[in-house]
Design brief:
The complex is a heterodimer of chains A (257) and B (313). By secondary structure, chain A is α/β, with parallel strands linked by helices. Chain A has ten helices and ten strands. Chain B has one domain. Classes of the chains: A alpha/beta (257), B mainly alpha (313).
């Protein structure tokens, strides 16, 4: 299968600590790949390294065969790798719909000359983007919240807004950092449906997630990190049988019978 | 429409002194609107507006007096000079953001002020430059008709202010405004969806410098005399007060704020030396009771259709 993203020997030290240690992996087109591991295993740092928010100490990142190590976050986003944040970042102070329109920046760049001249063609394009933003909100089930300020929504709704903003940027690879953290069971399953819908629309998904029911249910492959190192890669049933993974992270209840 | 009639009739009704205050208010409106791109939309605070105001004024004076260009040509060249200085300063200052950006722009402002003050052979030093030629109406008479009256400059400044209001409305309603606000609302998320924050902040900063220079240029031809005082902190502070007082992130805010900042000290003259204290008191009262500013307070109470134009922020 075609690879969307590859890392080789990716390493990041914070002082004496190797937060991510020699991680080589690839993400294949169309799959849902989950990254699991105990707290502090380096999952979020791995996302930060891939998306350019943190520079690697060593190692390389390739997006669709192009080396992107050392590039800025917006340059990596420009190549189709879009992420969300664990802290559920939204454009908090503006109406939800405006925030989604902001997410469309990569798809529809502001054309300064046309804007200053007030060209009708530009107005039409901006209206078209707004209509697509409404559709995106509908697809995650919060169209009725379009005029509310994002920070006034419930936590679960904000998580959906964050995903809609990321989808607006037209990702080929969408990296979701703990999309179900802090959600109740019902909201979690709504989120799972949203993520599966994203995969079905042809977007590759990378997932950092703690809820093993979610991970085992939707992942095509799983990478297990512990203390910055990859200790296992495989399909869900292989991971559940892996002694080292059970030892480090899953615990006995996930050991398959 | 009513507003257009009021603006058109106003100079016939007001005594020259009051009209002069209106003219100064128009200069502050232009300065406040240009600052608002940075402070209200991009969400960075530059403390160097006086420098660009001064660069625009000095460039226009020197070009119109030294190069033998038409005065309007000098205005255009001065605007270009201001934009280029803005581009250079912004390129360096925007390597950092937040508090560091504030301090670096303050340092640049001081640097440019000192250069203007000490480069006596070129700028006239503390004496400044006098007898700056006035703007003219081209095609009337042999050399055009010089605009020498407060009355005439009222219309020039209204024209400039209308242009800048037009730009502000166009930008804030468009995707460019969205991109600016995205950086204000969440810098990390803005980058994650592909916004090149250096590029767009530099764009806003250059626009800020360009329009501040335009204000300085027209002001120089209006008053005819300039000195390094133009580059002192007061000309940075008052537009900032105007934006905060009026309401940042709206178009109507800096307009209201500019009027207040120009008019308040004048109409408080009866208070003598206490008038500046009173300006401070007004500022505190507005910040405490109307945190969105006077304009912001009005804007949130306007009907939706008007709000779309004035205050989509």
């Amino acid at each position: 299968m075609a690879e969307v993203l590859r890392t080789s020997g990716l390493t990041r030290h914070f002082g004496a600590l190797a937060a991510v240690d020699d991680v080589s992996m690839e993400v294949c087109k169309g799959e849902i790949l989950s990254i699991i591991g105990p707290n502090g295993a380096g999952k979020t740092t791995l996302f930060n390294l891939i998306t350019g928010f943190v520079a690697p100490t060593r190692g390389e990142v390739w997006v669709k065969g192009e080396r992107v190590t050392g590039k800025r976050p917006d340059e990596i986003a420009e190549r189709g790798v879009i992420r969300t944040f664990q802290e559920t970042e939204t454009f908090a102070g503006v109406p939800v719909l405006d925030g989604i329109v902001m997410g469309f920046h990569r798809v529809s760049k502001p054309r300064i000359g046309a804007i200053l001249l007030g060209l009708e063609s530009n107005r039409r394009e901006e209206d078209a983007i707004r209509a697509r933003a409404v559709q995106l909100l509908r697809s995650v089930g919060i169209e009725d919240k379009r005029d509310m300020v994002a920070r006034d929504l419930t936590y679960g709704q904000q998580k959906l807004v964050a995903i809609a903003v990321a989808m607006a940027a037209g990702p080929e690879l969408l990296l979701l950092d703990e999309p179900t953290a802090g959600l109740n069971a019902r909201e979690s399953w709504d989120m799972v449906e949203v993520i599966q819908g994203i995969q079905e629309s042809g977007v590759t998904v990378g997932l950092v997630e703690h809820d093993m029911n979610v991970v085992m249910g939707i992942s095509d492959r799983i990478i297990v990190l512990d203390a910055g190192c990859v200790i296992a890669i495989g399909e869900p049933d292989q991971i559940q049988k892996n002694e080292q993974v059970i030892e480090a992270y899953l615990g006995k209840e996930y050991a398959s019978a | 429409m009513g507003l257009v009639i009021v603006i058109g009739i106003l100079p016939w009704l007001l005594p020259t002194y009051n009209l002069h205050i209106i003219n100064i208010a128009l200069v502050y409106i232009v300065l406040a609107l240009s600052l608002n791109f940075m402070l209200g939309y991009v969400g960075e605070l530059p403390l160097c507006q006086a420098a660009f105001f001064g660069v625009g004024a000095y460039a226009s004076a020197k070009i119109s007096m030294g190069l033998g260009v038409d005065v309007w040509g000098a205005v255009i060249l001065a605007v270009i000079v201001s934009a280029l200085v803005g581009l250079a300063v912004g390129y360096m200052a925007l390597q950092v953001t937040g508090h560091y950006f504030v301090l670096i722009t303050l340092a640049f402002a001081e640097l440019i002020h000192i250069v203007v003050l000490k480069w006596v052979t070129f700028t006239g030093g503390a004496q400044g430059i006098t007898e700056i030629p006035p703007l003219g109406i081209p095609l009337i008479g042999a050399n055009g008709l010089a605009i020498r009256s407060t009355f005439g400059y009222y219309f020039v400044l209204v024209g400039v202010a209308v242009l800048v209001v037009y730009i502000a409305i166009r930008v804030t309603k468009s995707h460019l405004g969205m991109t600016f606000k995205a950086m204000r609302e969440n810098d990390a998320l803005a980058q994650a969806v592909g916004i090149n924050r250096f590029k767009y902040k530099l764009l806003a900063f250059t626009g800020f410098a360009l329009l501040s220079g335009l204000a300085g240029s027209v002001y120089a031809h209006y008053v005819g005399v300039i000195s390094p005082t133009l580059l002192t902190f007061g000309y940075t502070l008052l537009p900032l007060v105007a934006v905060v007082l009026g309401g940042k992130g709206t178009v109507v805010g800096p307009i209201v704020g500019g009027l207040v900042v120009a008019a308040l000290p004048e109409y408080l003259r009866f208070m003598g030396q206490y008038r500046l204290v009173m300006v401070g008191v007004v500022l505190i009262v507005v910040i405490v009771f109307l945190p969105e500013g006077i304009g912001g307070y009005i804007a949130t109470r306007l009907p939706r259709s008007i709000k779309e134009v004035w205050a989509r922020g």
